[in-house]
Structure formats: C-alpha cells, structure tokens
Write a structure and sequence with these properties.
- The structure is a single chain.
- This protein is mainly β.
- Among the domains are: 95 residues, Thrombin, subunit H (Beta Barrel); 137 residues, Sandwich (Immunoglobulin-like), CATH 2.60.40.420.
- The protein has 5 helices and 46 strands.
Length: 673
C-alpha cells in the first residue's frame, strides 16, 4: 500500500488546537475530462467497450460514435468516428457476443459493419414494442443476464400521472437468444438503469415520482411487482408472471414495507437513496468487479445520479434471503448529469453524461470523463452489516479507539417514506436511535454499535462526524450513510458491560429538541445545516385586507418542457401589489421562489443543503434572501400568492428551488421606479 500522504504535518495553534488537513475526493479520486469535438453533441445515453479497447458511445439523438484512445495515452488526443445514426433516443448500448446491441424508443437494434469500413451498414430490428407517442416512454438496456437472456426495461408514459399507454410499458422484459419475449416483472416507473451484481442478480435504479417516495435500487426477481401500478394493466396477458391488479394496491400513504406485508409480490427497495441528500435522479449502476481499480470496495455497486452529477457507493448484504444495505457518498463534481458508467481496461471508470434539459449540478450540456484512483487509501466506512441489536461498521483504516467509543461521535436515526399515488414523499416517522454499547475490534477496523432498538423496513441514518482515524485527527472522507433494514438478522446479542459501555452521551439523547437538531445536521459536507422557512408572510395565500382596490397586477406563470418557466422576464413598478398564480404543468415537482437581487443561485444552493427536512419546508430556505414563494407543487397543481414588489429598483431573480432545478429553471422581475 502506498504511503498515506494525506497525513500532513500537524499545525499547533496558540490555544493548543491541533488541525490536520482532511482528505478530499479530488485528492483520492481525480477526474480526467475527455475532450469532445465541438461539432459532436455527445449526449451520452449508452456506452460499451469493444474488444480492441475502443469505446462505443450512443447518444440521445440516435447516433453511435466510436472513440479510439479514450485514455489519452502518450498524450495523444482521442479520435471520434460516426458508426451509426438515424435512431431514436438511444438509452442503452452493449457489446454482446460479437455484436453491438442498443435499445431505442421502440426496439432492440443490432448493428453490424459488414464491409469492414468502420461504419454500420446493417441495422437489424431484433424485437420491437408498440408506442403511444408519449414523450415519457423511454427504454433502457439491453444487458445480458446470467442465463444468456437480454433484459430491457420500459418507462411508463406521463399524462399528469404515470400510465402504461402501450403494451409492456412499466415492465422488465427478457428475450431469449432467439428473441422470444418473456415478461419478467412490473411496477417500474422510470427504470433508468439495470445491472448485475457479482452474484449475477439483477438490480434496477428507480427515480422519485408517483408511487415512488425517493430514488432507490431494487433486486428484481421473476414475478416481482416493484410498486408503480401503471404496468398492471398488462398483468393478464399470456406469459405474465404477475397476477396483481390495480385494485389490489392500497393508496393509504403507509410505508411501502408495511403495505408489502398485505400485498403478495410487492417488493420494497433493497437500498433507498434519500432524495436531495444523496441524489435526485438515480441513473447508472456499475458493479465493482475485478475489471475496476477504485479502492477497497470490490463487490459493491456504484450508482450514478443525473441531477446531482455524483456517484454514490452501495454495500449490499443478503439477510434471510432478502437484499439490503447501505449507501454512502463516493464522488461529486462531474461536469454534467451522469447517466452511464463503464470500466476501462486500465481500471478507471468511464463516466458518460447529459443534462438533457433535466438540469444537473454539473453545468455542461453533456460530457465524458474518467474517474481514477490515486492509490491513496481513503479513510471510509467500508461496509455496514446488520446485527440483531445494531450494526457492525468496518473501516478501511484503523479507527482511534477513544473517539470510536464516544457515543457523541455518532448520530443515528430512522425514517421512511409514504407509498402513495402522489409524486414523491416527505420524510415520515422520524425517530432517534441511541447507542447502548460500543465494541471495538482488536485491530480497530471494526466497530459494533448496539442500539436501543432497530426498525425493520426503515432507513437507518448513521452519521459519524466525531470519528477519527488511528492517529486521532483524520476525519472520515464521508461521515454519513443510510442503511435500509429489510430484515433483522438472527444471532447473538451483545450484553451490556462496563467494558463496552460507551463514553460520553449521544447528542439529543432522550430529547426531542436534540432530535430536531440532529435532523438538521443531515447535510452532506458542505458547510452546515440550512433551516426551512417558517415565515408565513413570505407565503401569503389570501389577499391582504389593506388592498382595498385589489391587486395592481395579476400574473399567471406556468412551466415549459425542459425545466423552464413559461415567462422569464417581468417588469413591474416598485410597490406594485401582485397576485401571482403558478401552475405546474410539468411531470415533476416545482415551486416559485422570489429572491433579492443577485441571490438566485445562493438560495438554490441553500435548498440543496436542507437535508431530510427539505420537502417538509417546500425546499424554501429560511433566509432573508427569500422574498416570496409558493408551495412545492405536484404535477398538475397550482398555488396563488400575494406579495408587494420591493420599493428598491433592481433585478430580482425568481427560481425553482427543488434541488438542482435553480440552475436552469429561473427568471427575473425587473423593478423600476
């Protein structure tokens, strides 16, 4: 192992304070940008490597490009050639048994270069399915399962809610080697990625929406119903392994895990990916196989996010035949919205991206980058394994025993989401968990936390801000993660003794006020908690009594496709009394937030840092930079507010503060005398 160069010299300050520079993601995992010619709009929808180590990239606009030397070896620039074109929104690409296969809107297509000139001259439809013409009928894949079948997933359409408008949309389909269809599972809303883990089991990534409280990854088996009822309209078709009907699915808002106890075949996520904390739009899945070289996490899954331009890391374990596990941050800062990842021959990760008008924190419209490992060992939680009375955390480096035994170094809580037809869900049923015992292994690489209780079916937040590496000063690179506990394992429980009793006291122990503080700490390492707005004067829904003559100006504001307001420039006189109605005609959540001059981006960034409480406060930060706002609107809903235009002339930005939208979905009110 390389020398731990991140352990920099200690700086002793006047009051005896000791500081050590913490590890950074960019230090451990450098990102290399692969240049793209200006004339190529490489909006990546699929990627696959060819036997000669060329990278094939499919685009949303129906092209397939072949890239030679994507690693830029010997300082040479990569070369691009157009291999195929004229197809419809390719969102999956794979090299299988000597041929390139892709999934476009209506079919699986095979491409062949028959004359060897480097361009495809045979486009073969291997299987096609009907389309209604709805824009939301995306198709993904194919991947090859462990038995040699091709697997694809089909989106449901969107008509103000998810609907399967044409056959098999909302399903995972398998195709035998001779391309005979086998319906496999349903309940999918927007299954943007699918992949096999190391054991050959299929996992898929889901995005928040109707019947989907938050993003997740789920193990899929034949006959599963994974939650969205739209695809059940085809359950009676020949060959369907699913026998449920829409009328069998209760719309009570209970947690999905609880509903699954009464609905045979309903499958809960293997790992929830908490919305706005870990990502907004779950995308690619990549198994950390022997092909990769990305640090000490072999056998785990990397999961991309299109909106937050980040990659998370998922550790899975199987308890009582059911997959569950923990998600941790891994790497942020990519140039656009991540959609696909592949291993290169050098062990680096090729990351293909597009913003597509959906918006992403990476500001580029599209991009292609390589993620590499510097060889420096990060101080991370390597695995989290459920125990009958808590969790065992394994670390990549030995921990400092003093901080590891301190209950105050940890914060733990549980929560879940509603299962209902409404788009998304606020966090519900939050409660604190307290540490009763701590056991540190002799090699100090494992810490067992015994809790007051576990909650089966719930997400367990584990934060470790106070934990340090063996030297006592180096913090974790990522000090929080979320474990989805689908089953509590059997086994021996730890008996509380003097030796394993934790030192200190957990923050917020036996205190609701402390619990509230704990929840506001649920922020990625980005500068502390941001509280939600509680000032009712910024959301006035009735005309003020002092407006004797009514509003001076009535504004009807709507949405346009591609994360846009339908009006982006408004000029008003200072002091104007405004009645504004914002109607959300889009297929995702939006709000309207008016800010002080020059504050649009700052307010949008605050919303990203609101943590688990964000949706409860409509993702409106409690800040003087916020002047007026609507509630967070479901698709098809509207909100009317009243406010008075400021007296000071200037340009006042308005934005949607739903995480990540503010960079694209914005406008301005120009205030004049």
């Amino acid at each position: 192992m390389k020398k731990l160069t991140y352990l920099l010299p200690l700086l002793l300050l006047g009051a005896g304070l000791v500081r050590v520079k913490a590890q950074t993601e960019s230090q451990i995992y450098p990102i290399v940008t692969i240049p793209i010619p200006k004339e190529i709009a490489l909006e990546v929808g699929g990627m696959t490597f060819l036997p000669n180590d060329e990278l094939a990239v499919a685009t949303r606009k129906g092209e397939v490009w072949i890239i030679t030397n994507p690693y830029m070896k010997d300082g040479q620039q990569p070369k691009y050639r157009l291999f195929a074109h004229g197809m419809h929104e390719i969102l999956g690409l794979n090299y299988i048994k000597g041929d390139i296969y892709l999934t476009q809107r209506a079919e699986i297509t095979r491409l062949r270069d028959l004359d060897g000139d480097g361009e495809a001259d045979e486009y073969s439809t291997m299987y096609s399915w009907p389309l209604s013409g709805n824009y939301h009928e995306y198709a993904y894949g194919p991947i090859l399962d462990k038995d040699g079948n091709m697997v694809v997933t089909l989106n449901v359409g969107w008509i103000g809610y998810g609907a399967s408008l044409s056959k098999w949309h909302g399903w995972m389909l398998k195709f035998t080697p001779d391309f005979k269809l086998k319906p496999f599972a349903t309940g999918f809303r927007s299954p943007a990625a699918l992949a096999l883990n190391g054991d050959g089991e299929i996992f898929y990534a889901e995005n928040q929406g109707d019947w989907v409280g938050s993003g997740s990854i789920t193990h899929v088996e034949e006959g599963d119903f994974v939650g969205n009822p739209a695809g059940l309209v085809w359950a009676d078709e020949p060959g369907s392994p699913v026998k449920l009907h829409k009328s069998d699915i209760p719309d009570t808002g209970e947690p999905k895990f609880e509903v699954a106890k009464r609905v045979p075949g309903l499958k809960s996520p293997s790992v929830w990916i908490p919305h706005s904390i870990m990502g907004n739009s779950t995308s690619g899945i990549l198994n950390y196989s022997d092909n990769g070289n990305m640090g000490p996490f072999k056998g785990q899954l990397f999961v991309g996010d299109q909106s937050q331009s980040n990659i998370n890391r998922v550790f899975l374990e199987k308890i009582k035949g059911v997959y569950q596990g923990a998600v941790f941050p891994f790497r942020r800062g990519f140039s656009s919205g991540i959609l696909r990842m592949n291993w290169g021959s050098d062990g680096s990760m090729l990351v293909g991206m597009t913003s597509r008008g959906w918006s992403s924190t990476g500001k580029a419209e599209y991009g292609l980058q390589r993620l590499t490992w510097s060889g420096i060992m990060p101080f991370e939680v390597q695995t989290v394994k459920a125990q009958p009375d808590g969790f065992e955390l394994e670390f990549t480096l030995p921990v400092d025993e003093k901080t590891a035994r301190d209950a105050g170094a940890y914060k733990l809580s549980t929560f879940t989401y509603k299962y209902h037809h409404i788009y998304g869900s606020p966090v519900i049923n939050q409660s604190a968990r307290n540490i009763k015992a701590v056991v540190v292994s002799p090699d100090r690489k494992r810490v067992r936390l015994v809790l007051d209780s576990l909650k089966e079916g719930y997400i367990h937040e584990i934060r470790m801000e106070g934990l340090r590496a063996e030297n006592g000063n180096t913090p974790l690179l990522h000090n929080y993660g979320y474990y989805t506990l689908n089953r509590i394992p059997d086994g021996e429980k730890i008996v509380l003794t003097v030796e394993n009793k934790p030192t200190g006291k957990m923050e917020g122990e036996h205190s609701m006020a402390g619990m509230e503080h704990h929840q506001m700490g649920n922020i990625p390492a980005s500068g502390g908690a941001v509280k939600g707005n509680t000032d009712a004067s910024k959301h006035v829904i009735r005309q003020p009594e002092s407006w004797d003559k009514g509003p001076d100006k009535t504004i009807l504001l709507g949405t346009k496709p591609g994360l846009k307001f339908d009006i982006t420039n408004i000029t008003l006189k200072a002091g104007t009394k405004v009645k504004l109605t914002f109607a959300n005609a889009d297929d995702m959540l939006h709000n309207f937030v008016l800010t002080t001059p020059g504050s649009g981006n700052a307010v949008g960034e605050m919303a990203l840092k609101m943590g688990l409480d964000g949706e409860k406060y409509d993702f409106v930060p409690g800040s003087p930079k916020v002047l007026a706002h609507t509630v967070l609107l479901q698709p098809g809903k509207a909100d009317t507010i009243y406010f008075t235009v400021p007296k000071t002339p200037g340009v006042y930005p308005f934005i949607c503060t739903y995480p990540g939208h503010y960079m694209v979905m914005k406008g301005q009110i120009k205030v004049v005398k």
